[in-house]
Amino acid sequence: MSESGYEEADVVVIGSGMGGLAAARMPAQFGGKKVLVLEQHYMLGGMTHEFSREERFKFGTGLHYMSGNAGPFLDFMTDGRVQLNPLPDDYDVLHFPDFDFSVRASREKYQARCRSAATGPGIRMGHAHSGPSG
Ligand SMILES: Cc1cc2nc3c(=O)[nH]c(=O)nc-3n(C[C@H](O)[C@H](O)[C@H](O)COP(=O)(O)OP(=O)(O)OC[C@H]3O[C@@H](n4cnc5c(N)ncnc54)[C@H](O)[C@@H]3O)c2cc1C
């Protein structure tokens, strides 16, 4: 055995973001493999981190909400230790040059808003002709 033990790894994963940690856990848990995760940063987690300035302002570096049905996978990855909060309606606003598009949480409301933006004056449009359909 080497001093570091690195030579004994069956699988090497480079990067400890969500992708790397998910990729590392599968062969470790289900394949009984020895997995080595290499991370260049001094903290694990990739873009799941947040940082603060002046101890007042907090900035997420990446993930801040998830859509679709990510809950079961997140449960698996965290052994159920992360709790998800439902998104409120209008949880984000996308700013385009000519209009803003507020994103709704439920699929039905989101689809309805897409339709209305594409066919009508849209949501808070700046110009009568703007929108995904022009
Ligand atoms: C501002 C922003 C907001 C986002 N918001 C959302 C959101 O709300 N919802 C959503 O689903 N997604 C969001 N995303 C996307 C999501 O954060 C990323 O898709 C996801 O975090 C990528 O995970 P990853 O594991 O692939 O990469 P990362 O999290 O980037 O991890 C890569 C890791 O690999 C390490 N690494 C790279 N090269 C090497 C090397 N040569 N040697 C060793 N280590 C290395 C890095 O240091 C890092 O830790 C957002 C992204 C950004 C930038």
UniProtKB/TrEMBL annotation:
Keywords: FAD, Flavoprotein, NAD, NADP, Signal. InterPro entries: FAD/NAD-bd_sf, Retinol_saturase. The keyword Nucleotide-binding does not apply. The keyword Transport does not apply. Pfam families: NAD_binding_8 (PF13450). This is NAD(P)-binding protein. It comes from Paractinoplanes aksuensis.
